[in-house]
Structure to design on (722 residues):
């Protein structure tokens, strides 16, 4: 069977500086998968590169054996919360409706079916009472729920989420993990960039340890070991970072 | 000073009002074809620029609008050179090419050097404008350039709008309105969250260039009437005004277009009334007045109403504090409202028995609503530690609100006054309990923290507190 996401020899640069080196991984279907690593390890970059939001310097990504542009509808995305302007003049419902735009296609307006779907997704994250609110008036946790509802409205088989647990209240955190488990139950594959080592082994079936290169990937109990964590967070990999600086220098 | 004032007055000679009225009628009866042309032209400009302006402001492209406005100048001059006349079609082509070249150059500099976007825009804008000014000056010195009227492009001259221009403007406006309406949801999602729009598979880059092209052609048709220098105001000011007035994108786009049109018509009318006053700058002044009004009086984001709301809240808090004082001075529930000892202890027989779950419970307070609460003015004055005149003054809003009546030298709470007093006492008590039990603040922290909270707690929060403290 084809894996939901297969990454082959992926190298990505940011402003000419390589930040991910030769990533090779195939994610299994129907799991909650955590991407874990120190700051600057390229966790978000990996997600963006898989999502086609950053140019690949080498390598490719396939979704069920097909390139992204054939499988867009299958992949839902939750960007980091800080990446947007929350003063933007839209309501909670407007934002969640955006999740349906991919399936709708160009120039078609969301109709009754889309609005009903949007209501169901809002209800799943307990945000239905806030549907008419302007998004500036939401707390951090509520904003995260809105982003998740928007991704749910994409009705995808694969979800990529960038730090959904960052800076949310405890109630939202447990609501999110419940939601993720629900997605897994429905057979979806969920990739989550995660920064909290405390909760990582509890939340995820598999973990990818990342620090500019792939340190390890596999079932949580095999990967989340003292030795591998040391390798991810320890100093030995700084050589990669220095090499990246050199590469960037030669390109300037 | 007087000399300056006189000199200022010679700038604006006082009008003959009957003539002004006559001119007004002439303007709005639209009999004069020249007037009609200018008015229609200004309405079309206001509509196009206002609509697109919303996206310019929300995408933080304001500076880009300005630089595109300046960047068209060399293109306009080249367009003029084609036939050595002000052939609107060639001017249009030249301007669009020039604007798109400018915007591409901004992106190019940004991508291939360490220059950031604001500096890149400034570079392109001033470079193109400098080149344009050189060309313009040379053109005007040529024999065929004398009557060119090209200097209108600097500050604009709406009266120079001809029928051919209006035809072009109409076409461009139709394209812009259709483009925005058709791609509204795509423009909305890319403006809000571009990476997500890309993830959805929307052609974000194409949409960006579509928007850029629409902005460029809107600028090009505006330039003759408004001029290079003031152009960005046509895009930014109506949109910024609308942004202060609404929280919905659709409403913002419509409002912005409406402001653009109203200002365009007003500017044209004013410049018709006061002959030789420049239309474009007048439009910009009118737009700026709109903005100032929105800034001051917008229901949600305006500063005047915000101040009024704050003032109201302060007045309310003051009124409720004096209500609380009357209630306390009359011997009501001292333990509840400012007890320094733990609340709910059994020595406080009057307290609203929240802390005793097995006691008579929350309904205590309602049972007591029937009993009169009154106190003499002297006692109240002692309780507040303020002279009688101050107390008198402080009681006035209470009486005005119908919460208390003054009979002789006694003040008595009315039924609604008693109700509110109990409510406040209860809110305060709930909050105090919440802080000591759930937040586990020591009691001496609680009293001050809770000082004003009872005025603020809404019914939803009160119900939630009740639920948590059951």
């Amino acid at each position: 069977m084809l894996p939901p996401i297969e990454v082959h020899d992926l190298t990505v640069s940011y402003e000419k500086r390589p930040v991910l080196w030769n990533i090779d991984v195939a994610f299994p279907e129907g799991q909650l998968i955590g991407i874990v690593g120190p700051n600057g390890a390229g966790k978000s970059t990996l997600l963006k590169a898989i999502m086609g939001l950053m140019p690949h310097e080498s390598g490719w990504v396939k979704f069920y054996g097909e390139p992204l542009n054939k499988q867009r509808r299958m992949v839902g995305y939750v960007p980091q919360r800080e990446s947007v302007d929350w003063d933007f003049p839209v309501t909670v419902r407007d934002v969640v409706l955006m999740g349906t735009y991919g399936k709708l296609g160009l120039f078609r307006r969301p109709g009754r079916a889309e609005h009903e779907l949007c209501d169901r997704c809002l209800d799943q994250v307990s945000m239905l009472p806030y549907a008419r609110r302007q998004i500036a008036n939401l707390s951090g946790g509520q904003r995260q729920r809105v982003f998740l509802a928007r991704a749910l409205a994409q009705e995808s088989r694969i979800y990529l989420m960038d730090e959904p647990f960052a800076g949310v209240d405890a109630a939202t955190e447990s609501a999110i993990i419940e939601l993720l488990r629900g997605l897994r139950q429905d057979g979806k594959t969920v990739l989550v960039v995660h920064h909290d080592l405390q909760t990582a082994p509890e939340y995820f079936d598999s973990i990818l340890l990342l620090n500019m290169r792939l340190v390890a990937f596999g079932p949580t109990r095999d990967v989340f070991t003292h030795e591998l964590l040391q390798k991810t967070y320890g100093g030995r990999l700084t050589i990669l970072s220095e090499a990246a600086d050199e590469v960037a220098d030669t390109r300037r | 000073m007087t000399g300056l004032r006189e000199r200022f007055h010679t700038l604006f000679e006082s009008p003959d009002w009957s003539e002004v009225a006559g001119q007004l009628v002439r303007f709005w009866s639209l009999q004069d074809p020249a007037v009609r042309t200018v008015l229609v032209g200004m309405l079309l400009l206001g509509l196009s620029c206002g609509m697109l302006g919303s996206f310019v402001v929300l995408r933080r492209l304001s500076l880009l609008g300005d630089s595109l406005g300046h960047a068209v100048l060399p293109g306009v001059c080249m367009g003029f050179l084609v036939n050595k006349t002000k052939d609107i079609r060639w001017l249009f082509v030249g301007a669009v090419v020039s604007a798109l070249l400018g915007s591409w150059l901004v992106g190019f500099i940004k991508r291939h050097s360490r220059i950031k976007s604001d500096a890149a825009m400034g570079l392109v804008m001033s470079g193109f404008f400098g080149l344009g000014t050189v060309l313009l000056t040379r053109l005007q010195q040529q024999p065929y350039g004398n009557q060119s009227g090209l200097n209108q492009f600097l500050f604009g001259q709406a009266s120079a709008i001809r029928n051919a221009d209006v035809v072009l403007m109409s076409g461009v406006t139709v394209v812009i309105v259709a483009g925005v309406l058709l791609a509204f949801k795509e423009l909305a999602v890319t403006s809000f969250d571009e990476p997500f729009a890309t993830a959805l598979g929307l052609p974000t880059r194409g949409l960006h260039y579509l928007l850029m092209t629409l902005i460029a052609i809107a600028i090009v048709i505006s330039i003759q009437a408004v001029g290079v220098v003031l152009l960005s105001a046509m895009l930014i000011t109506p949109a910024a005004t609308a942004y202060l007035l609404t929280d919905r994108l659709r409403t913002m786009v419509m409002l912005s277009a409406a402001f653009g049109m109203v200002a365009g018509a007003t500017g044209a009318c004013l410049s018709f009334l006061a002959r030789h006053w420049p239309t474009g700058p007048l439009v910009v002044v009118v737009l700026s007045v709109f903005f100032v009004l929105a800034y001051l009086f917008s229901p949600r984001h305006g500063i005047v109403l915000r101040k009024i709301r704050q003032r109201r809240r302060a007045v309310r808090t003051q009124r409720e504090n004096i209500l609380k004082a009357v209630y306390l001075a009359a011997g009501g529930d001292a333990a509840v409202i400012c007890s320094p000892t733990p609340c709910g202890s059994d020595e406080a027989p009057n307290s609203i028995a929240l802390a005793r779950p097995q006691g008579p419970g929350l309904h205590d307070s309602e049972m007591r609503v029937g009993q009169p609460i009154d106190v003499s003015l002297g006692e109240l004055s002692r309780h507040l530690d303020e002279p009688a005149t101050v107390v008198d003054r402080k009681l006035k809003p209470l009486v005005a609100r119908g919460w208390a009546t003054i009979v002789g030298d006694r003040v008595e709470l009315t039924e609604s006054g008693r109700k509110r007093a109990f409510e406040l006492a209860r809110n305060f008590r709930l909050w105090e309990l919440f802080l000591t039990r759930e937040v586990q603040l020591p009691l001496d922290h609680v009293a001050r923290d809770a000082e004003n909270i009872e005025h603020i707690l809404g019914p939803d929060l009160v119900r939630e507190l009740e639920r948590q403290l059951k």
